Structures are given as C-alpha cells and as structure tokens.
C-alpha cells in the first residue's frame, strides 16, 4: 500500500497528539476525584485553560438541510425541515421561537420539490462529493482559529458519523455513513483538524423534531437513543468541545444531563473537554461549563466564561439567497472578535458549507482576512484577560444593550466603533492584558495622536504599534491621560492589515501591572 506524504504527515501528527493526550489523561486520572451526577458536583469542575486562551473558534452547520439551503434572509436555513412541516398537526408541535418563516419555506418547497416531497428525500442528494477535509482544516488554520465545532447532529436527527442509534430510532438509514455521502464526515474532519494543530469539537442536539421515539416516549428516547448515541460519539472521537443544543423543551432531569455529564467528566480521555450551558430548559446562563449567546451582544465581563456564536450572514446553515450585502465584512468580524475578547468572551464564528462539500469562497475570504489580522495582532487576543475596563468610550451617551441567550439583538459593532448615532458615545479603544503587556486596540487609526484616558504610566514604559516594525512611539503623561504620538506614515508599514490597530504597552524585563494605573474618569 502506497501512503502519500500528506497522509503520512497527518498520521505522525495524530500519533503525537495521542501521546500528549495519554499523558494529559493519566495526570488527570491520578489527580482528580470522581464527579457525582449532581449539578453541585459537576459545577466544581474547572473549565480547561486551553479554551480560555483560545478565544476564537469555527462553528460548522452542515447536513441534509444544505440541499435545499433556503430560508428568508434573517432566519436559519438549518431549520428548513421544521419549517416545511409547521402547521401540520401530524408533524408540528416543537417550538419555533419568535421567528416564523414557515409560510415562505413551505411555498418555496412546494414550488421547487412538490407538496409530496418529504424532508428525508433530501438525504440521498447530500453527497458531499467535493468535501476535502484537509482543505477545510487548512483554511481554519489560516483563519487563526484555535478550535473547530462541527454539527455532529442537528435537530433533524441526521448524523454526520455512522450512528446505529440514528438508523434504529428512525427506522431508515439516517446517517452520513449509510446514505448520501456514505462517509464518516465527522471522523474525516476531526482527523484533518487535529493534524492541522487545532482542537476538534462537536455540536450535538439533545432533541430531534420528528423522531418517532421522541414523540412517543421522551424517557425511552433519552434512555435508548440520546445517551447511547452521545456516548458513541464521545467514545469514537473524544471531542474537546461539546456544544449541546435543543435542550429547551425539558428540564435537565428529564434529559438526565447530570448523569451524562458525570460519565463524561469521569472519563480520563475527556480531560480537556469543555461543555456549554444547554443541558435543560433551566440551564442556560445558569449551569454548565460556559455560557452561550447567539447573534447577541455577548455578556458583560465577569467570572462566568461565555461564548458568542454567529454566522457571517444571518443563517448558520448555508442559505443560497443571502447576497454579499447580507455578509459581514472582514472589519465587522474582526471588531466583533476584539469586542468579545475585551469583555472576556470567545467568538465561535460559523461557516455553512454547501451540500457538495465546499466552503463558499466568500466565507473562506473572510476567514483568511481574520487570520491575516491575527498574524500581526494575535498577541493581543490569545491568552489575554480582561482589564479593569473593557473599552474606552468617547463623549456622548453610552448605549445600553440587552443580554439575550438567543436571538438577533440590536448590537452593531461598526456603529458603536466607527459611526455612532447622533449623541451616542463611540467605542474608541478596546483593552486586553497579559502579565507583561496591556493592549489598546483602536478601530480607527489616530490622525496624529492617541489619547488613553484615565491612565498613568511609569516612566520606563514602552509603547509600540504592532506590525509597524517594533519602533517605540513617543508618549507623555497629560494630567490623568496618556498621549501617544502616532506618525501617519506608520500606516505604510502595516501593509494591508487595516481593520483595527493594536498599541502595546509594556515594560522591558518586568510585569506591566505595577507600571500601569487606571484612574477613575
């Protein structure tokens, strides 16, 4: 058998990864106590530090719904299967939140496929014939992301790995190994992602819209389908992130989430696993490893770890009718990352591949642009923590934002940072810190000087603009503010990286803390 150099390299990387995992797991097994199936015990588990430091991950919504790939702009295309049956008393009954686009989806479906074409008939057309996991992983690596989370199973119940439970529960082939691609999509991507040096995670929906067992007997569904299927996924692939979803219909006691998480946490192989807060209708922003928001404003800084997820357009699953104006610019995405990190959060940015297995080029373009910016400014993102204040506001009224776990919140980072409404304050700077530096990230390049308000610096502090050759910038204390002289010609040294500008404040050979004193404004 002839093995290509790329495959050989990937196997060497995977062997190294496995060795590290074995060592990590052994240390964990020796030093940890068993977690009990009780929230009070589960909440004692510390979230592994790698996730806190990573800051930026890639979400992937991919499945049978990529075949029709349709939803009115502003809604989720991955909900196609639920929308096409909404109003059908024999099928309907699950919550569809506050976004009701069912009439438009049904009209589209009947016009394109006919009134008798069933959702499961899309599965043979989900072929993924152009899927190249190595190419995907390379783009994710180039984006600067540190972890990847793939939908192992969305609410339609179709799995991207060969799941016996899926076929048995539905009474038909309902996994990517048996129908459509006839390939272990999750396993192939996990191998490529890890070979690229990134962590691999799994999105997993607790409930399934029209699963016959779920609709007949939820307890039997949990016992015979959900738990054994989840354990199969974890045992096969040892994901480093588990993004649970679809929990809202029942309390965590019904899902038996405490028992399942105790099993997960007590596995030595799961030493680095991170889980979210979607394990029962009472758990969001209350219980779990980290809190989640989607298409929201994120959360204020504080002790609770959190993650904002969103797509580049307004859907997670690929939506063919989204045009270029529906997609975020690279600057919006970069400022979203910066804003999120300044407040202590992670950003999970979604891509929605096509049914044939391609990541749309516009999405690849945005990811590579983020990677180019992070190649210069990444030290102000990775491994940083929040400072005494996350941002510096300009003059005007500081807007208030709703904190929502789910839904499109009126939170426009470009408006806040570049073009505020009349009378509103602007976010002039975003802050992040590490032991040896404080970072001030400006969304606009200063015309001639940069003022950092309410800050006193020691005389031996050094300030530089990242990406501009490492030259120290002249600065002076001006009362309670710091004024930094910024030569406009520095822009020429930054090349094409111009979405945001990072000023590093450091002190050679010493921690930055004692040299930086924030004052009240």
Give structural notes.
This protein is of the alpha/beta class. Among the domains are: 225 residues, TIM Barrel (Alpha-Beta Barrel), CATH 3.20.20.80; 92 residues, Golgi alpha-mannosidase II (Immunoglobulin-like, Sandwich), CATH 2.60.40.1180. Helices cover 31% and strands 17% of the residues. The protein is built from 16 helices and 18 strands. The strands form 4 sheets. Strands 5-4-3-2-1-8-7-6 form an 8-stranded parallel beta sheet. Helix 13 links the parallel strand 7 and strand 8. Helix 6 runs parallel beside helix 14, helix 7 packs antiparallel against helix 10 and helix 13 packs across helix 14. It is globular. The N terminus is likely disordered.
What is the secondary structure topology, with strand pairs?
Blueprint lengths: L4 H27 L7 H4 L6 H6 L1 E5 L19 H4 L18 H12 L19 H11 L3 E7 L10 H7 L14 H11 L3 E7 L6 H5 L1 H20 L3 E5 L6 H4 L1 H9 L8 E2 L15 E4 L11 E6 L18 H13 L2 E7 L9 H17 L13 E3 L19 H5 L9 E8 L2 E6 L6 E4 L2 E3 L4 E4 L9 E4 L2 E5 L4 H4 L7 E6 L9 E3 L3
Helix pairs in contact: 1-8, 6-8, 6-14, 7-10, 13-14
Sum up the overall morphology in one term.
globular
Number of strands: 18
Please tell me the overall pLDDT: 91
CATH architecture of one domain: Alpha-Beta Barrel
SS field, number of helical segments: 16
**Helix residue percentage:** 25-40%
How far is it from the N-terminal to the C-terminal residue, by CA? 70 Å
């Amino acid at each position: 058998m002839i093995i290509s150099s790329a495959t050989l390299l990937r196997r060497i990387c995977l062997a190294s990864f496995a060795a590290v995992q074995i060592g990590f797991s052994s240390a964990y097994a020796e030093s940890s106590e068993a977690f009990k199936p009780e929230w009070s015990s589960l909440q004692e588990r510390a979230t592994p530090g790698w996730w806190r430091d990573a800051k930026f991950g890639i979400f992937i919504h991919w499945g049978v719904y990529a075949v029709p790939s349709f939803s009115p702009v502003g809604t989720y295309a991955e909900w196609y299967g639920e929308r096409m049956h909404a109003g059908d008393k024999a099928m309907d009954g699950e919550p569809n939140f506050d976004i009701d686009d069912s009439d438009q989806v049904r009209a589209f479906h009947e016009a394109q496929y006919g009134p008798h074409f069933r959702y499961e008939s899309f599965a043979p057309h989900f072929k993924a014939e152009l899927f190249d996991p190595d190419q995907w992983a390379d783009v994710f690596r180039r984006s600067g992301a540190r972890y990847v989370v793939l939908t192992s199973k969305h609410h339609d119940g179709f799995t991207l790995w060969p799941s016996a439970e899926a076929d048995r529960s539905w009474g038909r082939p309902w996994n990517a190994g048996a129908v459509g691609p006839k390939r272990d999509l999750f396993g192939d991507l996990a191998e490529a992602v890890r070979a690229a040096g990134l962590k691999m995670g799994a999105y997993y929906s607790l409930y399934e819209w029209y699963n016959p067992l779920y609709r007949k007997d939820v307890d039997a569904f949990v016992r015979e389908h959900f738990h054994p299927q989840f354990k199969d996924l974890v045992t096969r692939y040892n994901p480093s992130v588990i993004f649970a979803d679809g929990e809202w219909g029942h309390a965590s006691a019904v899902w038996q989430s405490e028992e399942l998480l105790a099993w997960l946490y007590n596995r030595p192989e799961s030493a680095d696993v991170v889980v979210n807060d979607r394990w029962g209708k009472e758990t969001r922003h209350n219980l779990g490893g980290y809190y989640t928001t989607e298409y929201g404003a994120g959360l204020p800084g504080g002790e609770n770890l959190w993650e904002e997820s969103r797509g580049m357009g307004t859907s997670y699953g690929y939506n063919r009718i989204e045009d270029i104006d529906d997609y975020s610019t690279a600057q919006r995405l970069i400022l979203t990352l910066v804003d999120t990190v300044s407040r202590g959060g992670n950003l999970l940015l979604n891509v929605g591949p096509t049914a044939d297995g391609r990541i749309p080029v516009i999405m690849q373009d945005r990811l590579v642009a983020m990677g180019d910016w992070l190649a210069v400014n990444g030290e102000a993102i990775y491994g940083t923590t929040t400072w005494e204040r996350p941002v510096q506001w300009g003059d005007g009224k500081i807007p208030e934002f709703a904190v929502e776990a789910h839904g499109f919140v009126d939170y426009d980072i470009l408006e806040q940072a570049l073009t505020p409404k009349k009378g509103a304050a602007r976010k002039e700077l975003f802050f992040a810190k590490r032991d040896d530096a404080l970072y001030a990230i400006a969304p606009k390049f200063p015309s001639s000087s940069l003022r950092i308000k309410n800050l006193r610096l020691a005389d031996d502090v050094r300030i530089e603009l990242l990406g501009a050759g490492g030259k120290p910038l002249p600065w002076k204390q001006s009362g309670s503010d710091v004024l930094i002289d910024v030569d406009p010609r520095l822009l020429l040294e930054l090349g094409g990286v111009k979405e945001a500008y990072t000023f590093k404040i450091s002190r050679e050979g010493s921690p930055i803390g004692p040299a930086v004193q924030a004052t009240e404004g």
